[in-house]
Amino acid sequence: MKHKFVIVMLVLFTQLFMFSGADAHPATGIVLDRGGNVYFSDLETVWKIDKQGKFSVFRAGVSGRHVHELTIDAQDNIYGADISYVAEKWVSDVWKMTPGGNLSYLLAPTSDPPRGMSNWLDREGNMYLIDQNNHTNTQTLLLRRSPDGHVITLAGGAYGQQDGKGIAAKFRSVGGMAFGPDGSLYLTDGTAVRKVTMDGTVTTVGHDLTFRTSEDKPSLFGGSYGSLAGLSVNSSGTVYVADAGNRRLLRIAGDGKPAIVLRTEPPYFPNGVATSPDGSIYVLEVGFTLPSSWSGPRVRKIAADGENTIIATVGSDKLYSIKATVARSAGVSTESVLSFFVIGNRIKYGVAILGVTLLSAVVMLWRRRKQRP
């Protein structure tokens, strides 16, 4: 019986640490073309929702080949970057799909990609890539690669968070990226959104964005401080950013003050966002329940008049509906039971309780073995 107790505590202890670090990295990619068609990634497959609401595969998925982000150019070409683990090597590529579905590679699959290759391209064909190591936290660089292959550091240097120009600016942990209407880049950086102009000037658009209110429900995803994911900037310069950790979508206007546009219920959390010229907002939501149940992504449309509808769900058949219902229920109950351990500063008490319990169980087992003849 004691053996079973130790195993249960080990599993719970491991899951707590695993989830508080937000190790999951689902797709954030969702874009909108000039005709009002929506494209999004479920991590492997890229899907299309046309203006009539028809749901179809735009680029077929391959198991183990991950597509996290999507971008789109003025001609409605879709760009993505694959990453996969093949024969004990990381293989990556950068691809382009025309509106008609023709595929070509900007970078063919390789285990040794040139520095600065990315699917984030500006109007002149320059590529932008974040170069960082979140394990060492020594530096975070925003690289720019010209069409002829010349790579420079546009902004960033030592790890930190500081506005400035070029290497005088500092970033922490950069997640989402998006182009603004003026061609500037917007980045999620820790709990902030930063803006980088094409001369390398970095300013903070909004900070402390993972604040919690009395209306925010306990969340396990992202740990006790939440996590910012994908973002989009509309034609007037208003930023919409997915606060995945707190299951909500934020709007940041010119004054830098955030407003909560949407809250989602477990197991779903917003992870990507795209904005339309007509004022509509498209939100990519991902479903996850501890310890490892993914119930599939879905897309929500928030129209300019406030109408809020789910327009597509991956795997939206009868079997999936049952799974989604079970996952939603499990998500609520799991978070209700375990939220004590991960909300605010209470995580240290949760870890302490589990640690003492585990240590006591191990000591009991050790003493019992020593007493055996």
Largest sheet: 5 strands, antiparallel
Content of β-strand:
35-45%
Q: If you compute it from the alpha carbons, what radius of gyration comes out, rounded to the nearest whole angstrom?
A: 22 Å
Task: Kindly name the structural category.
Answer: alpha+beta
Number of strands: 25
Shape: globular
Average pLDDT score = 84
Question: What is this entry, summarized?
Answer:
It is built from three helices and 25 strands. With 373 residues, the protein is an alpha+beta fold.
Can you describe this structure?
- With 373 residues, this protein is α+β, with helices and mostly antiparallel strands.
- Helices cover 17% and strands 39% of the residues.
- It contains 3 helices and 25 strands.
- The strands form 6 sheets. It has a 5-stranded antiparallel beta sheet, with no helix packed on it. Strands 21, 22, 23, 24 and 25 form a 5-stranded antiparallel beta sheet that branches. It has a 4-stranded antiparallel beta sheet with strand order 1-2-3-4, with no helix packed on it.
- The radius of gyration is 22 Å and the shape is globular.
- The N terminus is likely disordered.
Write the layout of secondary structure elements.
Layout: H1 2-20, E1 30-32, E2 38-41, E3 46-49, E4 55-59, E5 66-72, E6 78-86, E7 89-97, E8 103-110, E9 127-132, E10 139-145, E11 151-158, E12 164-165, E13 174-179, E14 185-189, E15 192-196, E16 201-206, E17 228-233, E18 239-243, E19 248-252, E20 258-263, E21 268-275, E22 281-289, E23 293-294, E24 298-302, E25 308-313, H2 318-338, H3 347-371
Antiparallel strand pairs: 1-2, 2-3, 3-4, 5-6, 6-7, 7-8, 9-10, 10-11, 12-16, 13-14, 14-15, 15-16, 17-18, 18-19, 19-20, 21-22, 22-23, 22-24, 24-25
Helix pairs in contact: 1-3
